[in-house]
Amino acid sequence: MINLKNAKWNHYINYIVVAAVTIIFAILSLTGFLESSDKYLLEKIAIAITLAVSLSMVVGFLGELSLGHAGFMCIGAYLGGKAAVILEPMLGEWPALIVSLVIGGAVAAIFGIIIGLPALRLRGDYLAIVTLAFGEIVRSIFMNSSKESFGGSLGLDTPRFNKDILFIIAFVMVLATLAVTQNLIRSKHGRAITAIRDNEIAARATGIDVTKYKLLVFAISSFFAGIAGVLYSYSNFTVQSTKFSYNYSIEILVMVVLGGMGNINGAIIAATLITFLDVELQTILTGNLAVLQDLIYALILIVLVIYNNAPALKPFREKYNIKTFIGRFRPHNPSKHKDDEAKWDRVPTKIKMDEVLSVDLQVSSPYTPDKPGKEGK
Amino acid sequence: MEFIETLINGLSIGSTYAMIALGYTMVYGIAKMLNFAHGDVIMVGGYMIYVGLTVSGNPIISFIAAVLSCIILGITIEKIAYRPLRGASPLAVLITAIGVSYLLQSSAQMIFGSAPKMVTVADLGSISFSGLTIPVYVLVTLICSVIIMVTLSLFVKYTRTGRAMIAVSEDKGAAQLMGINVNRIIMITFAIGSGLAAFAGLFMLMKSPSLSNTLGAMPGIKAFTSAVIGGVGSIPGAMLGGILMGVIEAFSLKIPAIAPYTDAIEFLILIIILLVKPTGILGKKRREKV
Amino acid sequence: MKKILAFVMAAMMIIGMTACSGGANYTENNTEFIIGVSGPLTGGAAVYGVAVQNSAQMAVDEINAAGGLNGVMFKFIATDDTHDATKVAANYASMLEGGMQVSLGTVTTGPGLEYSKLSAEDNVFFLTPSASGDKIPEFDNGYQMCFADGNQGKVAAEYVNSLGLTEIGVFYKSDDAYSNGIFEQFKENLDPSIATVETVFTGEASDFSSQISTLKDCSFIFMPIYYQPASIFMTQAKGIIADNAVYYGCDGFDGLAGQFEDFSVIPQEVSMLSHFDSNATEGAAAEFVAKYTEKFGTDTLNQFGASAYDCIYAIYNAMNAAIEAGETIDVTISASELCEILKAQFNGGFTYSGVTGNDISWDESGYVAKGAVKYVLKEAN
Amino acid sequence: MSKIVLKTENLGISFGGLKAVQNLNLEIKERQLYGLVGPNGAGKTTVFNMITGVYKPTTGKFWLDGEDLTGKGQETINHKGIARTFQNIRLFNNMTVIRNVMVGLHNQPEFRCNVFTSIFRLPKHFKIERAMRDKAKKILDIVGLLDERNNLSCNLPYGKQRKLEIARALATNPKLLCLDEPAAGMNPHETEDLMKIVRRIRDEYNVTILLIEHDMKFVSGLCDEITVLNFGTSLVQGTPEVALNDPEVIKAYIGG
CB C217: neighbour CB atoms within 10 A? Predict the structure, then answer.
């Protein structure tokens, strides 16, 4: 196999894949091999990945359920878009892009901290509904804004960036999101964050500053949602608030959950596939067939989630998954797992979410030595 | 006078929310899952009433048919989409619930078309006294909500099945060890919840006779919000939350300057209530054992 | 496992995408003229999109049955945008790359704002049946078959001014481009001596008791909204708003009568300012209503469809007129070339008579000029 | 003897009307192994919860090294030098053993680095990570879990999980280490092993240890001094031999 240390390979694989895809498509785009529809699709995929990865920070690593991610994106889209409108004549295209990315991200991050504050007091469903409420409030405010400020119900007209280049920028942003998210998670701070998720009381007792880290995660997560929003405004001629309803937040959540909680690569793949499926269904099923879109999407969603999560299907999953399939062609390397480096950064693919959705149940059940299913060694 | 009038309007809006929230809170409080498809079961209930009226012309028969079909639908959804995920992450169940919601909506559009249907269940008229006019359906909805609330509370408190429900909501594993058939209890919960959804469908149609496949979506979210305001899993809380939500909405719509922001104001008040009382108005706070 | 999956997927996508790349001329393989539209075929606004799809398809079928354009057939594609502007770009690109030569733009205003700019870049002609926003025909490739919102508001205000009222009620949807667009111009052109009682709703609200009680003393209520919420409002307002009051709406009201089994349960007078009445009993409109009802029933019968039907015929007639004037329109003509030809026609005195009006013409900016009629949908009981 | 590490004065808490603990006066001296015993429901864990900041005492005060920590938050109290384990084990289940300990090392001054250092992968980040791992290995060695360091903590057997909790608490470099039933669920052999570990920790790290335990052999074999609690009040204080033979204590345990 590749003569790199396993750990390093593991860490950088998604950068390499994303960068390779970006470069390949950039070349194809600049040599005129890509249709507009491909470019639109790529833009959408990049934005979806940014959103999914940033949301997985909150849901997967911090273990809090947020249904307001679209709200942060909305802030980024409107403020970044407005900044672009104002700055583009003054600064030119590229500086305006950079400044509006920063503005959109920063303002979204500030709101992330504001919404992070209730997260210190609320858990589970209660936090979920508060984030959902926040998203709807943001949407309502932009919806009813005056024509001069944010365009009101007609939406804000924003400059559309050159479509040959925008998706490349969007993928660079994906790389940036990945870099920040993964570097943070794979550091002592990331350990503190996952510690809070695993057991908040123990984390506090171990001296972890829960307040600081919760706010940090909300800030970073919404920063990148804001960035995605700015990219969104650049990829459309108008920004309309109807887009940012709770349904869109849920769509992003679906990507995170399908990808596997706390699994960044999974979130990337899920975001790509869902966006791809969405656009393909939309453009293939025209006319009278359009009604089938949601039906097919819903069926795929239900089947996938049940297949991936049903406890009864566990043996089946273990028997027929890609890992075992690939494993047949690859010599088993038992020494790999002994390496301290290799497992140092293990990101759990499944986290215990009992506490996320059921606050008034006992948060975590005490361990009993004879509990069935947990075997001692 | 205007105050009382607005209050009555608030009750009118809130009674629907309360009715939906009661069904929501049953499923939500006992099966511990956010059933995002609940609003769409209401929609199916509405369509069933429509079909019943078209076929039989009798509101009572069509309503009974709607209740039965909603119960069957609820049980089926639970069996196919939720039961396989018992024991898996609650988020996975949340996602299948969303899938079921999409499925029901698009099926409804496929079967009944995209145009809204006008369904006139029964014109109950309105009663007036001393300058106030109250549509009768508001009173009927309110009275029915209260009856349902009381019945549910008594059912949960005093029947064997009801107590088993509480046990299941507290701890599924322990309940199972005590000999409770958890699957059966959750199935009954879904049946009750879905039956209540048919009630909600009926009352929504009595109020606004226009029936489309998105009928339940936004009221569903508002009702969920109401249930959270009232306190998750609390039956009187759902009622209280719903009424409160309706009254806030009515008063907000009354003031021209803030009327367009009505939804935002409702949600803002939700946030404030939760910040002051993190478990909702009637929610129980439980201390974690350390 | 996941990383390998990622690789496989990336490779798959690269193959999939490069395979479909081609030259800039998408129409060279066309064997029919392709007309496209993007509209809400699913979701809350589906009824409008479906109406457009049905009617446009009906018109295309009729034209083809009659031999097409000098023997060349037409093909109509309707893509679904669920009233979401974000989805328009993908629809537009896929239709254009699929050989679309001329289009009906979008069905609704929000997505239309996106569509008008996209199509302006490629110079693709569109004549929208129902995206009535004032900014829709912003560029010279865009035309409207419906009245622009602002104009409707203006005409409605002029009508109200002529009634000599002192106070009117207004009920509109504050988060809707159509409703807002009409209301703004209405307010601007309304005689300042007329007091207004304004009420709003948002989203898919279905309980208007609060708004109704605010408006209960008004004898004239202007409602620039679509017919579904209007029907709910009227049902709920029974017995609260005076029986001799008047409900007055714009073209969105069309289809209202079809919502009620018996419209006479509403005691008030209901009238609208529109270009089409789906209860028409004579003329081209009645003919359209009969044909549509036979094929699709009355469920989705509304002015959106009538307007779309006219759009197809207007484009067809304009192409015919251009050929008579000596232009050649080949089946593989590019969208941009056809756009120039049609623009020359539409700006050059072309008129059309059809379901939604007679001697319809267009000005340079793309707005339609045709007679707006006050239809009384229902007399007061 | 030496100076007093933890002092409580009239410490008490009531939940609603129930007085869970009242008028508790403790004086724990440096490097002491101090036991807190009593029948179930006597309020031992509640005492722990008060001095680690989980609950705020309703009456009284407590001092660590002379500093008043009453009413401070859990994090602050930990930073000041009180670390604890839990009766119902609370590990970070999705982390490997070594990472559990590294979370404990999070706030140590020598491992401080800000978020940006980590996000931008500055050299300091790598240096700190290496140093933390080495330190964690040392701590794991003491509790005998070095070989298990790359296993998920939830896969450890019960006894080892308890040891890991001790290691994690120890990693925060406490002045006072509070162990809540460290020997619960262990077999006699493991208990003996644990006694050695606890002593070794005290000796090598100069830490004062306060522990709750039901195993009287464990308590009398290990502790220098104990306090017996019953119904939230202190019955007897003294050396294990004296205290455990006190008739009041026997009565409390036997009941009646």
Answer: 12
